Amino acid sequence: MAGVNKVILLGRLGRDPEVRNFQNGGKVVNLRLATSERYKDREGNQQERTEWHSVAIFNERLGEVAEKYLKKGNEVYIEGQLETRKWQGQDGQEKYTTEIVLRQFRGELQLVGGRGGAGGGEAAEGNGFSGGGGRSSSFGDRGGSSGGGGGRGGWDKPKGADLDDDIPF
Predict the structure, then answer these.
(1) Fewer CB near the terminus (10 Å): N or C of the chain?
(2) What are the structural domains, with CATH classification, of the chain?
(3) From CA 80, how far away is CA 56, in angstroms rounded?
(4) What is the pLDDT of residues 5-31, one digit of tens each?
């Protein structure tokens, strides 16, 4: 039986994207994403709990977009999968890190709340992401759809239409 490994997060960047280049010419873009939950405790006081998530983008196109457009404080929607990797610390001990990974053809990245300097919807579509409304931009890598939005306003969006992307929650 096959399993499902999919992570969907909507949060804010805790710092600017960090880009590391590999000797073989590839690169990875690392993000730190904060998700917050607000609730009232038993006494009725407002409480907030923040979780920090490590995100690694190995998808070349999404990495370029993250490097160019994302900044600390941006609200971002991502879809990826959980992966655990083993590494060796400076003390020689084996350590494990679990992170959300966006790989080729298996990931999505969306700016929520504005594009900043990304430009208008029509010019933006040629850059590999779909947009149109002023509130969000979608960066996806789904293989065949131009605009790469994965059905969130990509190739089937009428020219000049001011459509907002749908977030599934």
Answers:
(1) N
(2) 7-38+45-140 (2.40.50.140)
(3) 9
(4) 999 999 999 999 999 999 998 899 999
